[in-house]
Amino acid sequence: MKFDTAEVDLPKKMRRFLADIDSGRAHSAPVLKKMRNNVSSSLRCLVETARRSGLDEVLSAQTADAMIKRLKAANWKPSSIASQKTLLRYYAYETSEGIEWALDTVGSDRRPLALVFRGHHWAPYRVVLPMLRDEGVAERIIRLADRWLRHRAKVGQLSLDHTLQFRTDPGNLACLVRFITAIDPGNPDTRILQIARRKRLSKAKAVPRKPAYGDLPEPFLSEMKAISRKPKDLGGLSRSRIKAMGCTVRRLLRSARGQGMGEELTMKTATAFAEDLLAGDLKSISAAGYCDFLACFARHAGYPSEIYDALMQTHFALKARAKGDLKRKEIKLAKAPINLADLAKTARNILENAPYENNIRNRRRDYTLAGAIALLSKLQIRSKDLREGKIGEAFSRDSNGWQVNLTTFKTGVKINARLAECLTPYLDAVLLMDTDHEYLWTIYDQRLGTALFANPARDWKCYSAEWLRRNMTERTKHSAHIVRTLIYDYCALDADLDARVAKALVGHSHESSKKFYEINADHYRRAQALAQLSNIEKSIRA
Asked: For strand 454-455 and strand 461-462, is the pairing parallel, antiparallel, or unpaired?
C-alpha cells in the first residue's frame, strides 16, 4: 500500500521519534533501525488515515482502529496487521502518545523500566527509583504501578468509582496498596484501593448468605427453618437471636456426644448441656444466656414444657450468681494491677510505635487501638458507645479539637462536652491512620456518618466488641469493661489522677520533635516496605 503522506508531513513528535531512531537516541534504536522504513510507513499510514477520517493526527484508540479497519479492507493478512500494531506500540512506549491504546492491545506488558519511568507521574518519586532497582522489586509490580498512576492522574480527587474502573484483580490491588505505601507513606489513595479490593473480592466470591442458624442435623435444621420463617410482627425472632439459638443447639449436640447420648433434645441431654456449662470457664451470665437460648428454642420448636422450665430455672439461678461476678473481676485486677495513668501510657506507646509497624493491617489496627484506649482513659463510656460512635455525630472535629455528643446505649445518659486536648492526636490518628495530616479535613468530610473506630477493610463498619476485647486484653491484660467498671471506681478519690493521665498521653511529643519523628518514621517505613516488595507476590498468595 502506497501513501500520499510523506515523512516531512508527519507531526513534529513523530518526526522527532524517527530522528531519534536514526541517531540512536531512542531506547529501542538497535531494534528499530532494522525496521526504520516499516516504522515510517506505519506512522504515515496512521496520519493519512486520521486525515481521511477527520480525526486528530495522533496515535489514539480511534486513529489506530480506523487504520486497522483500512488495512483489513485492503485485504492485509492478520500477521501483517499485527506487525503494524507492534510498530505503533514501539512509538507509544517511547513517546507516551497513545500509551493507553498500546497497553490495552497487548497481552503482557513488557516495557523496559527505562521507558516506564519516563512518565511525568513518576516525577514525585524520582528519589526512590534507585531503591526500587536496588531492592529487586519485581518489574511486573512496577509496570502495574505505572498503569495505576496513569489511571490515577485522570482525576484530581480519587473516588471509589474511578478506582473500580481500573481493570485488575484483587491480588493486584493488594500489590498496589503495598507499593504505594512503600514509595509514598501517607498517601490517602491506599484507603480507597483497599475498599475497592474488598468489593472485588466480594463480587468474585458471590457467596450466598448462609442462614443465621447455620448447618444443623435433622430434626433441628427443619425446626430452625420453621422458627426463622415466622414474621416478627407475629412473634418471630430476630436474626441475631436465631443465630445465637443455632450456636446453642450445636453446643447441646457436643455435650450429648461427649456423654455418649443421642443427638437430640431431651431432659437427659439438656442436663448434660447444663452440667458442661457449669463445669467450664464461662462467666455465670454467659452460661445463663446459653440456657435462655436453648429454652427459647425448646418452646418455639414445641418440645415438652418440662425441658423449657428446667432450663429457665437454671437460667435464673445462674443470673443470680452473676451478681457476685464482680469478685472475679477484682481478682483479675489484683493479678494484673493497672490504673488510668498506666492505661494512658499504653496508648501512647502504641501510637508512637504504630508508624514503625511495616504491615499495613497491623499499623492501622494500632492507630485505632491507641485511640480507643486513650479515649477510655479519659471518658467513662462503654465499649458499644465507643465503637459505634459516628463521625460528625457522636464525635466531631473542629479547628480546636474533638467534641463528644452522644447518648449512652445502656443508661441513656447524655454526654456533650469538648474532649481534652491531649486526646486530639490520638483521635486524629484514628481518622488518618497512616495518611498525612494535610488530608485531615478531606478524610473527615469523606468519613462523615461512619463509625470513628471503623475497619477500612470492611467499608468503614465498626469493629466488633470481640476485636476491642481481644486487642485490649493483649496489651493491658484487661477488657474495656473492667476498665470502666473498676478503674474509675478505684481512682475516683485521686485528685491528681486526671493530670497524670493527660501527662502520660502527651508524653514528650511537642511539635518540633513530632515533625522530626514523622519524617524519620516515613523513611523507616519506606525502607522496610521496599525490602519486602521483591516477595510481594508470595505474601499476597499467602
From this structure: antiparallel
Q: Are residues 197 and 314 in the same domain?
A: no
Domain membership of residue 15 (yes or no) is yes
Residue at grid coordinates 474495656: 480
Q: How far is CA 512 from the centre of its chain?
A: 31
Would you write out the chain's pLDDT as a tens digit for each of its 542 residues? 677 888 999 999 999 999 999 999 999 999 999 999 999 999 999 999 999 999 999 999 999 999 999 999 999 998 999 999 999 999 999 998 999 899 888 877 888 888 998 888 998 888 888 877 777 788 888 999 999 999 999 998 899 999 999 988 888 898 898 888 888 877 888 889 988 888 888 775 555 556 667 788 899 989 988 988 888 777 788 888 888 899 999 999 999 988 889 889 999 999 999 888 888 767 788 889 999 999 999 999 999 999 999 999 988 888 887 776 556 666 676 677 777 888 889 999 999 888 888 777 888 899 999 999 999 888 878 888 899 999 999 999 999 999 999 988 877 888 898 998 989 999 999 998 878 888 899 899 988 999 999 887 777 888 888 888 899 888 988 888 777 765 666 565 566 777 777 777 776 443 433 443 444 455 555 555 555 555 544 444 44
Total domains present in the chain? 4
Decide if 521 is inside a domain.
no
129/227 same-domain check: no
Dihedrals phi, psi of 504, to nearest 5 degrees:
-65, -35
Same domain, 241 and 137: no
With respect to residue 215, please indicate whether it lies within any of the assigned structural domains.
no
- For residues 352 and 439, state if they share a domain: yes
292 and 319 housed in the same domain: yes
Instruction: Compute CA 202 distance to the chain's CA centroid, rounded to the nearest angstrom.
Output: 13
Give the structural domain span for 96.
7-107
**Order of strands, sheet of 401-407, starting from the edge strand that comes earlier in the sequence:** 395-398, 401-407, 414-418
| H-helix or E-strand spanning residue 401 | strand 401-407
Instruction: Give the whole-angstrom CA distance, residue 452 versus residue 345.
Output: 22
103 domain residue, yes or no = yes
pTM over 0.85: no
> Which of 107, 135, 164 is at the close of a domain?
107
The domain boundary, picked from 67, 83, 107, lies at: 107
